[in-house]
Amino acid sequence: MDNRNAKNNGKTCIWTFLYFIYTVCPPPRLLIVGQKRTGKSSVCNTILGKDAFNTWGGAGQSDGRGWGTNENLVPKQEKLELFNALSLCEPGPHILLLVIPLQHFSHSEKAALQKRMEILTEGVWRHTMVGFTLGDRLHDCSIQDHIQTAGKDLQWLMEKCRYRYHVLNNKTPQDRQQVSGLLDRAEDMLMENGGWHFFLHMYCRLEEEWSRRERAMKERILERHDGAGKTSRGLAVIPNHSQKGGLHVNDN
Predict the structure, then answer these.
(1) CA triple 48-52-53, angle to 5 deg
(2) Which domain holds residue 221?
(3) The AIG1-type G domain covers which part of the protein (predicted)?
(4) What is the DSSP letter of 122?
(5) Do 98 and 216 belong together in one domain?
(6) Do both 89 and 63 map to the same domain?
(7) Cβ within 8 Å of residue 1, ≥6 positions away
(8) pLDDT band at 56 (very low <50, low <70, confident <90, very high)
(9) Is 21 inside a domain boundary?
(10) Both 30 and 144 in a single domain?
């Protein structure tokens, strides 16, 4: 083999290796979601390192889009916005960054969040990470202490997303260390999920299949119970003469 072929093969090997790395660990696509006035736009600006999104409403902690606090139903417009956001992340987001302010997470907020996440199926939690805003309010308290003392509703949220979270202080967007920490956590999640992105239709089909199997299993269990009941009701009555000459059902 001459030097020219060796160089070409060497370049081919390098590009193949780089393509393999990119394919296995592609840059994570983040979709930022959450209620209105939680600081989603500020989070975007902090991550990008520039004022790409308008913020208003006091310390830049509010935004115009996001879901409301209705616990019973999800308005049609919110569903359309959510599906549109997914379509902008084709073929699908790797990480859903759920923005929650570092304050009391109420039961009504939990119920509203649960309703919205149900639209995306249970599989969405596998790709969800909580992004806590208002990080400056922690002061001397650690995030772990805040989670432990915040109540059962926040505990429920942490269990759902497998305690994957990151704290951001949008008042110090120049602190790039907090952004690099967020992206490192996102890449860890990407590795945990085997590089898979969230694909709504796939999870819908999986849930349909799981429901079908669950129904089939319940039907088989009911059939077994019914069969056992018929057998017990059809026990033969065998004559058993006692000392008094009476006729009794054989105990066996």
Answers:
(1) 115
(2) 199-252
(3) 79-211
(4) G
(5) no
(6) yes
(7) 9
(8) low
(9) no
(10) yes
- Report if residue 108 sits inside a domain: yes
83-103 pLDDT tens trace: 888 888 888 899 999 999 998
Which range in 16-20, 42-46, 216-220 is most confidently predicted, on average pLDDT? 42-46
CA distance 56 to 151: 30
Q: Which 3 state secondary structure label does DSSP give 180?
A: helix
For residue 51, pLDDT over 50 is answered with yes
Question: Within 13 A of 130's CA, how many CA atoms are on the CB side?
Answer: 24
Specify the pLDDT at position 166.
96
In a domain, 6, yes or no: no
Average pLDDT, the chain: 78
Residue with tokens 């060497």: 10
Q: What is the spatial distance between Cα 221 and Cα 109, in angstroms, rounded to a whole number?
A: 39
Q: How many domains does the chain have?
A: 2
User: Of 198, 213, 229, which closes a domain?
Assistant: 198
Give rounded-to-5 percent helix, strand, coil for the chain: 55, 10, 35
Q: Are residue 165 and residue 74 in the same domain, yes or no? A: yes
CA-angle at 237, arms to 231 and 238, nearest 5°: 130
Work out the average pLDDT over 192-205.
81
Please report, as a single letter, which amino acid is at residue 27: P
pTM more than 0.85? no
